[in-house]
Amino acid sequence: MDPHADLYSVLGVAEEASEDELKRAFRRLSLAYHPDRWQAPQDKREAGERFLHVARAYGVLSDERKRMAYDELGPRDFEQGQQLLTAEVDSAAKLRARFEREKRRVAEQAYHGKLRMSGSLVVGASASDLLAPADPDLPLGERLWPHISSVSMSEDMALALSQRTALTCGCQLLTKGGLGGCTLRLGFKRQLGHHAFLHASASGLNGSPAPPTGRNPHWIRHYGAPKVPEGTAYTPDRR
């Protein structure tokens, strides 16, 4: 028999059956399917299986708390749900709420088990103006203090599609000296053996702004104003 078969149907009673109706149905079916009443090996085996299903159905429906859980969760979710029956779970609403929380927790664990993420942040700083200024006699208080010269950020993700295959993607952002660029990568990884795998990837959206030309370079709004030689007039774009 189907392990997820409706327990009321196994006993042949309605969902509103009383305790006495459940008892009468169990007695009738347990006598009919008791293995000792059958002689042929195949008949005895089939009767034994039906007898166990009848006993299980009665064991659940004759218990008030288990029957409440079964009526609330149904045949397929009952086995998992009855494990959540504790002293504080005294109603179908509380059982349903706890069951949904447990389902979300299991789903999140499965999701995080398939998704692997890693990233890095590298910040470069320059202290040359402080430690080795052009004028060695310049007082310490008048020297330029260390400043950030470059920033690099990267993020990589791998989503497992199966035990041997994964979809990979990554992003890298780099800015240095007023210029910057971004790279996006998308790849496919396939394990061929214990120490061998195939990894194919493609990258796109690479960008690095060109040096400023003309009076109003549009990229200034994204990457900051470039250094302008002394004596050169420069008017930023006000649009």
Automatic annotation (TrEMBL):
Segments forming a coiled coil: none
GO biological process: cristae formation
InterPro entries: DnaJ_domain, J_dom_sf, Mito_inner_membrane_organizer
CDD domains in the record: DnaJ (cd06257)
UniProt cross-references to PROSITE patterns, sorted A to Z: DNAJ_2
Domain J, chain residue ranges per copy: 6-74
SUPFAM superfamilies: Chaperone J-domain
Domain of life: Eukaryota
Protein's name in the database: J domain-containing protein
